[in-house]
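Students often ask why we bother encoding 3D structure as a string. The short answer is that it lets us treat folding as translation between two languages. Here is a chain of 39 residues written in the first language.
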Amino acid sequence: MSDMEEKFPRGLWIRLIVYIAVGHLFAAFIYLLFEVGAK
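And here it is in the second language, the structure alphabet:
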């Protein structure tokens, strides 16, 4: 794991986690809109 940490700086990992979290929230929001709109 130390090799991976040397290749990727800490800020990049944080940014990656934030992007994944925001992407999932955005996808869930769009899914919710479709579910409500279908009814």
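Translate back mentally: DSSP finds two helices and no strands in the chain. Keep this in mind for the problem set.
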